[in-house]
Design goal:
Bound molecules: heme C
Strand content: under 5%
Oligomer: single chain
Low-confidence stretches: none
Radius of gyration: 18 Å
Largest sheet: none
Structural class: mainly alpha
Number of helices: 6
CATH class of the domain at 48-150: Mainly Alpha
């Protein structure tokens, strides 16, 4: 009895790590990043961009700005050391993050002020929102982001 309790406690971090890996792996199934859509020349379709635009304006624009440009002072931390919401338009570092990490950030949120959306948006809606975000990235930024996945 006693022993199995210890094992259970010890395995919790390991189990949540495995769960995270499963989430990360599960995410890649639906989207082929090497796809070149005939309209956008990118992994996403114009329809996804339009769907994402609506989702973004409704849920994200209040913090990140209606064009994902953020507020001018986004580099200035407050007295607790917390930064305002960053731009997502390719100017900050969102493009350093692999696709799956962007998805997990949007689904789960962060401890520094980004709310999680998994209760409100399903996976396809989150992907469409990323499509809209990336539609603001200049080709150089998009290509650099894509190379990180290879
Ligand atoms: C209440 C304000 C708020 C709302 C609403 C919000 N965010 Fe955020 N978001 C933040 C903050 C603050 C950060 C920075 C978090 C951190 O540094 O941990 C962030 C970070 C992010 C990042 C990571 C950016 C990077 O450069 O690492 C992404 C992607 C993102 N948000 C997407 C979204 C999307 C998509 C929505 C809407 C579905 C949304 N956010 C809604 C405040 C918000």
């Amino acid at each position: 009895m006693f022993n199995s309790k210890i094992i259970t406690k010890k395995s919790i971090p390991a189990m949540s790590f495995v769960a995270l890996i499963m989430v990360l792996q599960g995410c890649t199934d639906s989207v082929n990043l090497n796809n070149k859509d005939s309209d956008t020349q990118r992994w996403y379709s114009q329809a996804q961009v339009e769907q994402g635009e609506q989702i973004f304006q409704e849920n994200c624009a209040s913090c990140h700005g209606s064009k994902a440009q953020a507020k001018p002072d986004w580099r200035v931390a407050d007295s607790r050391g917390i930064y305002p919401p960053p731009p997502l338009n390719g100017k900050a570092h969102a493009w350093h993050h692999p696709f799956d990490m962007l998805k997990v950030t949007i689904a789960k949120g962060t401890q520094r002020g980004m709310p999680g959306w998994e209760d409100k948006l399903d996976e396809k809606q989150i992907e469409a929102t990323i499509a809209w975000i990336e539609s603001h990235w200049p080709d150089k930024v998009y290509q650099a982001w894509l190379r990180r996945h290879q």
